[in-house]
């Protein structure tokens, strides 16, 4: 991903490239597609991020489908009407560049579970097994939740299905790893280090 856009900014900009939206509609799409599972966008930060994108000339307030040329028209979207934002031409280009980089670049991920595993020797064996059991239950719950979300959106665009598929594949891989590691710990408890 280019340093120009944070993951949250790129996510919002991409949703606006799909079609102009107001903040509440962005919230609905973020929730429906499960975007909070992989990006940090709180409801309260949507308008803050929109303002940042607007200040950088990447989005502008629009009236319906007019105004997509990037001109921020005074008075548009004011009053009781919700402010609708759409991408500017530069916003579309920035979104495409950043999205391409995000797909192409392999970046390290630092899941906290790896820190826990690195410190595994300090966890009593029974507590470690219980922690792994809790994690396995949480992973199974998340898999069920994602499958339900997929089933609820049978006509989701291909790219949205790809996001769900990617997330499910990762969770299913972790589920297999957890199953194997828990079985290994159960089969060879005498090989565990003495722990406090």
Total number of distinct structural domains? 2
- Report the CATH superfamily of the largest domain: Winged helix-like DNA-binding domain superfamily/Winged helix DNA-binding domain
User: What would you call the structural class?
Assistant: mainly alpha
Number of helices: 7
CATH topology of the largest domain: Arc Repressor Mutant, subunit A
Mean pLDDT: 86
- Our measurement of the CA-to-CA distance between the termini, rounded to an integer number of angstroms, reads 43 Å
User: Which ranges are low-confidence, i.e. pLDDT below 50, for 5 or more consecutive residues?
Assistant: 65-79
Second-tier CATH architecture of the largest domain: Orthogonal Bundle
The CATH class of the largest domain is identified as Mainly Alpha
Described by strand count, sense and barrel closure, the largest sheet is: 3 strands, antiparallel
Mass-distribution shape: elongated
Question: What is the strand content?
Answer: 5-15%
Q: State the helical fraction.
A: 55-70%
* Record field, number of beta strands: 3
Order of helices and strands: HEHHEEHHHH
- Computed over alpha carbons, the radius of gyration is 22 Å
If strands are numbered along the chain, what order do they take across the biggest sheet? 1-3-2
């Amino acid at each position: 991903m280019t340093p120009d856009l944070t993951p949250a900014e790129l996510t919002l900009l991409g949703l606006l490239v799909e079609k102009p939206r107001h903040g509440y509609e962005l919230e609905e799409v973020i929730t429906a597609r499960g975007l909070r599972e992989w990006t940090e966008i709180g409801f309260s930060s949507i308008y803050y991020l929109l303002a940042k994108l607007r200040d950088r000339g990447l989005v502008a307030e629009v009236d319906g489908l007019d105004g997509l040329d990037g001109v921020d028209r005074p008075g548009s979207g004011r009053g009781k009407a919700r402010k609708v934002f759409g991408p500017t031409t530069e916003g579309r280009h920035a979104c495409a560049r950043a999205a391409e980089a995000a797909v192409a670049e392999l970046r390290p991920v630092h899941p906290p579970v790896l820190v826990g595993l690195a410190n595994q020797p300090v966890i009593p064996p029974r507590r470690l097994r219980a922690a792994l059991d809790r994690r396995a239950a949480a992973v199974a719950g998340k898999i069920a939740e994602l499958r339900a979300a997929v089933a609820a959106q049978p006509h989701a665009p291909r790219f949205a299905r790809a996001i769900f598929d990617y997330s499910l594949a990762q969770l299913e891989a972790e589920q297999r790893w957890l199953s194997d590691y828990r079985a290994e710990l159960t089969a060879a408890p005498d090989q565990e280090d003495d722990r406090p």
